[in-house]
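explain this chain.
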Amino acid sequence: MVRQEVGEAVIRRIIHVDMDAFYASVEQRDDPALRGRPVAVGGSRQRGVVAAASYEARQYGVRSAMPSVTARRKCPELLFVPPRFDVYRAVSAQIHAIFVRYTKLIQPLSLDEAYLDVTVPLVAQSSATAIAEEIRAAIRAETGLTASAGVSYNKFLAKLASDHRKPDGLYVITPRMGPRFVESLPVERFHGIGPATAARMHALGIRTGLDLREWDMERLARHFGRAAAFYHGIARGLDERPVEPDRKRKSIGAERTMEQDIHHWDQALAVLDALVDRVWEVSGRRGLSGRTVTVKIRYADFRHTGRARSLPSPISSRADLREIATGLMRPFFPPERGVRLLGVTLSSLDSQEAAASGTQFALELETP
């Protein structure tokens, strides 16, 4: 993709890099006995939730966020390995060091994926596609792992593009291709449209990007509120969100929509454990600690509820976060109806250094 200008407006060149089955691939890299075999990171044989699955495991239908018991049922030969977040963080730092050779505009989404704005790169190379290829080659050479990349003129399409040729692939969506690429996709493939929203769209007869494009802003706003403008844009291949390298967070959250509604405490606790792991890992990586824990529950009929608890000082351990979240969730079980979504959020954030010194500073509110 080459740099293009329309009047004074410069068309962005965005790369989305997504590591392939990151946690599982690191484990297979470091333990030759795991290579070529179905591997699940996290969980256990009897309880817990899969944090990541190798591509060999995915062939059996094993997916991240799946209860370990279900994963074992789908793949009796599945090998469970405990997560090593210190190793994943170290590898992630290696990958980030590669990114900064090409641009300062890097927005990490997690340990294993990030957006890069290379509209004005730090290298002489003028092609975003060539930069993406160089990054993928450097990741393979320096970490022994593979990454997929998507190149496009906005974040939404770049992420769709990185998914298009996984694993170990590269795909480019040009401005000319964008609207047509979107129109044939099912809405559940759109980043930013989760299972619950996709189900609501299906009920309204919206199943593809083309269906969504036929709805004007007024109709979308009646059904989807503030998200209407985003949906209206992406249906046309438009997304004005910039890559935000220094985005400060007001909260850190994780949630999971169930493949099947859950009714029992043990099921909910297994999901909660995985959510707590995710929140704690992100907070540690970002050097943040928080004082407020919120648990969110959405039922099968889409009604939702939740509880929060604030502490006088920041939470200092994953065990404490789990204990508080578990206590907040316990009164809702057994539920009167099935639970389709659980979420955990940590807020009232400070940097860990500021928390230790008692210093307070302002944070911008994170856009949902």
In short: Residues 2-8, 352-368 have pLDDT under 50 and may be disordered.
